[in-house]
Amino acid sequence: MEHEGKSITGPVTTLITREIKPDRMNDFEEWVKGIYQVVKGFEGFLGADLIRPRDHSHPEYVVVLRFDEYEHLRAWMGSTEREEWLKRSKEMTVGELNIQEAHGFEPWFTLPDHPHTQVAPAKYKTVILTILALYPPLLALSTFLAFVLPGWPRPL
After folding, report:
1. What is the pLDDT of residues 30-68, one digit of tens each?
2. pLDDT of residue 42
3. HEC readout, the chain
4. ∠ CA 80-86-88 to the nearest 5 degrees?
5. Residue 102 in contact with residue 4, Cβ under 8 Å?
6. How far apart are CA 36 and CA 14, in angstroms?
7. How many whole angstroms separate alpha carbon 53 and alpha carbon 110?
8. 9 pLDDT higher than 80
9. Residue 98's closest CA among 16, 21, 20?
10. Closest Cα partner for 119 from 102, 99, 95?
């Protein structure tokens, strides 16, 4: 699948930011429970999280949706069910809906207070950090197993 000139494979995460009217926060949380029941029936849905606002005078919620692949996310984003649920939320919200998609390891490195102001790290930084985090423990495990199991191949 191509998106903005890039090939996308693997899991995709979507961050949806919405400011809610302060007197409608409880209604919005009930709305989130309802839409969750709908989205979890969609193919490829992996899970969702709700990040509640810290400042109740400016209640901005972040909904995190995870799908196994981009095509399944697009199916949800283009569905009539989603559109109907969004119409129900209009009376509870202020301003426009903000949607940001993150692919691969990006969500690990960008858990923003305001996702629309964050920029994902450069891909090479993500690769370097992943290698530095994974290689040493795997090398230690392989060395330990080679000691415990003499026939085990030596690490590189």
Report:
1. 999 999 999 999 999 999 988 888 877 778 888 888 999
2. 93
3. CEECCEECCCCEEEEEEEEECHHHHHHHHHHHHHHHHHHCCCCCEEEEEEECCCCCCCCEEEEEEEECCHHHHHHHHCCHHHHHHHHHHHHHEEEEEEEEEEECCHHHHCCCCCHHHCCCCCHHHHHHHHHHHHHHHHHHHHHHHHHHCCCCCCCC
4. 110
5. no
6. 14
7. 17
8. no
9. 16
10. 102
Q: Where are the domains of the chain?
A: 2-118, 122-156
Pick the CATH number of 2-118 from 3.40.50.300, 3.40.50.2300, 1.10.3210.10, 3.30.70.100: 3.30.70.100
Compute the chain's Rg from CA coordinates: 20
Pair 38, 18: CB distance under 8 Å = no
The stretch 87-94 carries a mean pLDDT of 88
The tokens for 156 are: 């590189």
The tokens for 97 are 């809906």
